[in-house]
């Protein structure tokens, strides 16, 4: 029994030895696999460390250090091959194709054509026929040395190695692009009138020729189309027909739009207190209209002069060029209020020095109001005679006491320059005169009576003689009348 047990134990130990051999083989296989994986894996970060993978009951495998990676080599620029230009130099040239419109500088001009530097490996050549649509005697009439021009590429390279160019075609394309852009944006252009025809005007707008029909010319009935030749006028493109080669423009539309732009600009510049130069355009009963260069302002009748005027024509006439004072600007309603008297000496400035309360002066009755009469003093000032001061007797209306045009004596009651008012009185003058007369009469009555004149004998004889002569004269007259009756 013991031997069986012992034999069994031996067999068990033998199995354990075999198991240990298998375990050792597994560890070696794992170590080899780990080494191969580390060689194939990318370089780890500096902060990471490789640690051997351990099995639960197996000893630690040795740490395998990864060899340091060699520094990456910087790419070296390739050396250009002999006989070829460097790539950087080639990059300075632009790539063009037929039909491109490019900019170039004229480097040579002669009878055979024009050479143009277009920043390409070869210069461009413009033959004389491709310079311009208009006729010319010499290429120098179209371009000059050093000019920067627009050209169209017709051919990248001809037999001589030049790039074939056309200025005429580039100008043509540029013209239609200009016209189409102006039509699309509704821009206002400036054009010079080259010729007047029966049906309208031929104009040049920045090298582009167009036609303005007579119905689209902004003119007065007295003006003729020939009067516009040589003038520069505002224009708007109203039709572009490239197939027919026609560009139609309007002077009337552009003039109206330009006027609106000028008005807006002028309104933005106007400020109260400015002095502006203007031209009198129209006179009305209530004032005068003055053109300030695109917008008209009104000088109200009361602002024409410090003195009263019945109509603007007393001071102004149409066509007068005058300086005006800006009183107000209404940018919303586009109205401007102007003054003329503000630029004249203000008589009220020294009114208090000229007239003192209690002073008696002469005044001319100008007009009536319900509450009295306005009278003009010297130096253009006006004063008011209240209805209660027109007469010593009560009056219902001013014309019951005075008439327009009467020159009367008035007494200064008050002077208010800040309010431009002077109070006058006729009644005070009359009362003072009556008072003086009464005092004079009183003084005369208070004087002693004059001594009686003594009668002499001579006076008595003379009186008798005078009475006798008068009696004889009367008797003679009676006898003459009786004889006439007989």
Automatic annotation (TrEMBL):
Highest taxon of source: Bacteria
Molecular function terms, GO-annotated: mRNA binding; structural constituent of ribosome
Keyword Protein biosynthesis belongs to the record: no
Biased composition (Acidic residues): 472-486
Pfam families attached to this UniProt entry: S1
Signal peptide location: none
Residue ranges annotated for the S1 motif domain, each copy included: 99-168, 186-252, 273-341, 358-427
Presence of keyword Transit peptide: no
Keyword terms of this UniProt record: Ribonucleoprotein, Ribosomal protein
Entry-linked InterPro entries: NA-bd_OB-fold, Ribos_protein_bS1-like, Ribosomal_protein_S1-like, S1_domain
Single Gene Ontology BP annotation: translation
Compositional bias ranges of the Basic and acidic residues kind: 63-82, 450-471
Disordered, as annotated region: 34-87, 437-486
Stated family: Belongs to the bacterial ribosomal protein bS1 family.
NCBIfam families, sorted: PRK06676.1 (NF005208)
Name the record gives this protein: S1 motif domain-containing protein
Organism for this UniProt entry: candidate division WOR-1 bacterium RIFCSPHIGHO2_01_FULL_53_15
Organism phylogeny: Bacteria, Bacillati, Saganbacteria
